[in-house]
TrEMBL record:
SUPFAM superfamilies referenced in this protein's UniProt entry, alphabetically: alpha/beta-Hydrolases
Annotated GO MF terms: dipeptidyl-peptidase activity; serine-type exopeptidase activity
Presence of the UniProt keyword Zinc in the record: no
Signal peptide positions (record): 1-25
Biological source species: Coemansia spiralis
Family to which this protein belongs: Belongs to the peptidase S28 family.
Keyword annotations from UniProtKB, A to Z: Glycoprotein, Hydrolase, Protease, Signal
Superkingdom as given in the UniProt entry: Eukaryota
Name of this chain's protein: Uncharacterized protein
GO biological process: proteolysis
Length: 474
């Protein structure tokens, strides 16, 4: 999972429905929904069936000749905040641009199939997702009146932007459709797949070490593991009550605790503070308090801060959910399918042979995740997924691609799956491209809305990106 925890606690604003061709006059509100018809399979399958993909438009700043800034929330439902409250909003204002955000197939209400069975999810491929966005951009360039609520000049220049998985989409769109996409801003793009992504855990540890509690957190996880691995149901129930989590299995309890403790490592670090310090490490500062008690206090605080119910915690932690339930709207199930069939990136504890300190339970291992791949999606799912083939096809496709701005945070928990890894860049920038490591920043921080509390390093990165975009547009 990428942002499962934040997805479960986020809410999408209410929207009004409207067909693009019917919305004339002044630009409608950016929360107005629009729809474009897409093939279920762009490559000849599904018997030519079609579906409706949702998108939103902010035309507030558009002037004839201005560029189009395209984005997708990736694994989140579309929301007006992606076009009203991001750095791209400021770019559009400066360049008289128009902003569009399109929902990714199978997320939100953009569903090509009536359910999420393994058979239905076969059309969730990278190629189909990219072809969806390409079809929209093609229409925006050739027949803009078919997709926009205001008159837009044909053949407008297009900049694609995204962070995290949607950063992948941005980079791949420039690589695969350079005739449609002039340039891309790929923030914290997780373009490098790892089957056993224990580096995720180690990135969290580096952040903990920076704010002074790595040793104590690791000790607490080890102490809790003694209970989780004991097969003692009484001790397990007592531990769950102490931490305020539901009565799940030992392995699902371990997975839930890992998700909750790492939540704040995704939050932006600002001049006002660091959530990892204030909402995790602050509980471990008193050496007279047992590490497990501090751990429990941090988890209870996270649950309270997020307003999570016990039912929501079950949804986060129960890895068996979705095995027999094929209903739409299960973000976790769709992302699980992508992990099982695309890029792996299973967020596991470091294997014992690495001799690394662990910040999540040893129960959070490959078996914990992969046993459900075939149970959830059918026997045709190859286990384990061929991550090397994925990298050969999709990571290598980015080599030599011009006009891509890659950014990554030095404290990004996903850093070692981006091109700005902890041991150096694993991709060299081509002509018109650039790579920036943002000191002190976490995940996809540069594409957020500009704020007085932003780190100076984030401001510098945005300034460099703005200059690149200006050169592309020129």
């Amino acid at each position: 999972m990428l942002t499962t925890f934040s997805l479960l606690i986020s809410a999408t604003a209410a929207m009004i429905s409207c067909h693009a061709a019917m919305c004339a006059g002044a630009p409608p509100a950016s929360s107005t929904q629009y729809w474009i018809t897409q093939p279920v399979d762009h490559f000849g399958g599904a018997g030519g069936a079609t579906w409706q993909q949702q998108y939103l438009v902010n035309a507030t700043f558009y002037r004839p000749g201005g560029p189009i800034y395209v984005s997708t929330p990736g694994e989140s439902p579309v929301s007006a905040r992606y076009i009203d409250n991001s750095h791209f909003t400021l770019l559009a204002q400066r360049t008289s641009g128009l902003l569009v955000t399109l929902e990714h197939r199978y997320f939100g209400v953009s569903n090509p199939m009536p359910d999420l069975s393994g058979a239905s999810l076969q059309f969730l491929t990278i190629e189909n997702a990219l072809a969806d966005f390409a079809a929209f951009i093609r229409a925006a360039k050739r027949t803009p009146s078919s997709v926009f609520p205001i008159p837009v000049v044909a053949n407008a220049q297009v900049i694609f932007g995204g962070g995290s998985y949607s950063g992948n989409i941005a980079a791949w769109m420039r690589a695969r459709y350079p005739d449609l996409v002039l340039g891309s801003w790929a923030s914290s793009a997780i373009v490098y797949g790892r089957l056993q992504n224990y580096q995720f855990d180690q990135s969290f540890g580096r952040h903990l070490a920076q704010v002074g509690c790595a040793q104590r957190v690791s000790q607490a996880v080890s102490d809790v593991d003694a209970i989780l691995l004991s097969n003692n149901s009484t001790q397990l129930a007592s531990m769950q009550a102490k931490f305020g989590i539901p009565a799940l299995s030992a392995s699902d309890s371990a997975g839930l605790l890992a998700a909750l403790i790492t939540t704040y490592s995704m939050a932006p670090v600002t001049t006002a503070g660091d959530y990892v310090e204030s909402r995790v490490c602050s509980f471990f500062g008193n050496a007279s308090i047992k590490a497990t008690d501090a751990y429990a206090a941090a988890i209870r605080s996270t649950i309270q801060q997020a307003g999570l119910t016990q039912q929501a915690l079950v949804q986060i932690g129960n890895s068996s959910l979705g095995i027999d339930n094929y209903e739409l709207g299960q973000v976790n199930r769709v992302w699980y399918y992508m992990s099982c069939t695309w890029f792996g990136n299973w967020q596991i504890a470091p294997p014992r042979w690495t001799q690394l300190k662990s910040y999540r339970s040893q129960l959070v291992n490959m078996a914990y995740f992969q046993t459900n791949c075939r149970k959830k999606f059918g026997s045709r799912i190859p286990v384990p997924v061929d991550v090397e083939a994925y990298n050969r096809k999709w990571f290598n496709s980015l080599r030599g691609v011009s006009n891509v701005f890659y950014t990554g945070g030095a404290l990004d928990i996903w850093r070692d799956t981006t091109i700005t890894t902890s041991y150096g860049n694993i991709l060299q920038p081509a002509r018109g491209s650039s790579i920036v490591l943002i000191e002190g920043a976490t995940h996809a921080q540069d594409l957020g809305a500009d704020s007085p509390g932003d780190l100076a390093s984030v401001r510098r990165a945005r300034s460099l990106g703005d200059a690149l975009v200006s050169r592309w547009l020129a």
